[in-house]
Amino acid sequence: MSPTPILTIIIIAITALISFAAFSNQKLMDDLIFYPPAVSKHNQWYRFITCGFIHGDTGHLIFNMLSFYFFGAIVEPTFGQLFGDKGKVLFIVLYLSALFVCLLPTYFKNRDNYYYKSLGASGAVSAIIFAGICIAPQSGIRLFFIPFDIPGFIFGPLYLIGTAIMDKRGGGRINHSAHLWGALYGVVFFMAACFILTNINPITYFVDQVNAYIKSF
Predict the structure, then answer these.
(1) Distance in angstroms (rounded) separating the CA atoms of residues 212 and 151
(2) Is the whole model's pTM more than 0.85, yes or no?
(3) What CATH number does domain 6-215 carry, 1.20.1540.10, 3.65.10.20, 3.10.310.30, 1.10.8.60?
(4) CA-to-CA distance for 36 and 47, rounded, in angstroms?
């Protein structure tokens, strides 16, 4: 039986509590949301992090937290196995730093845009999802509109391509840039941690897992 992903559950609980509080408190929402001019003009850098703990509505919150739970349940215990006592710290660092890193391109693009705001944990969740794909590339991922599982090593590139196209196209309320950079950051973070802290080559491991999956057919 896999260990309970305690940190994942704690992050979900904190995010849910703050999000529900902000639904009925506009001042709290305004104080926590990512608003680039508040950073560039007033040095409110905390908004890179706090915006990940609020969401636009209940559906947005549930979708992000369900996705986070499914992959956090893979990534969190695996970090413990790979990195020992440092695993829990690295998991928290990955999640929180992904909130910051995924919004950097958005910030530089909109730092003087007084009409731009962004919220939600999608960038950090993307980082966890793609760290999970690196760990278990053969695991299936199912989308709501496709009635079968897609192996992670196929889903990952398709997701990145689709997200990059939607980001370039622009428009809409979804910050595709945060999804894209969060996903890429999750891969880089996991690979760097493996190279620095273990004797595991994450690239070789990933390729071996994919080859084993293909040969199973």
Answers:
(1) 12
(2) yes
(3) 1.20.1540.10
(4) 9
Residues 120-137 have pLDDT tens digits of 999 999 999 999 999 999
Residue 170 CB: number of other CB atoms within 10 A? 8
User: For 139-170, how does the pLDDT look when each residue is reduced to its tens digit (9 = 90+)?
Assistant: 888 765 566 788 899 989 998 999 999 888 87
User: What are the structure tokens assigned to 68, written together?
Assistant: 């986070």
Percent of the chain clearing pLDDT 90 (strictly above): 83
Q: Is the pLDDT of residue 25 over 80?
A: yes
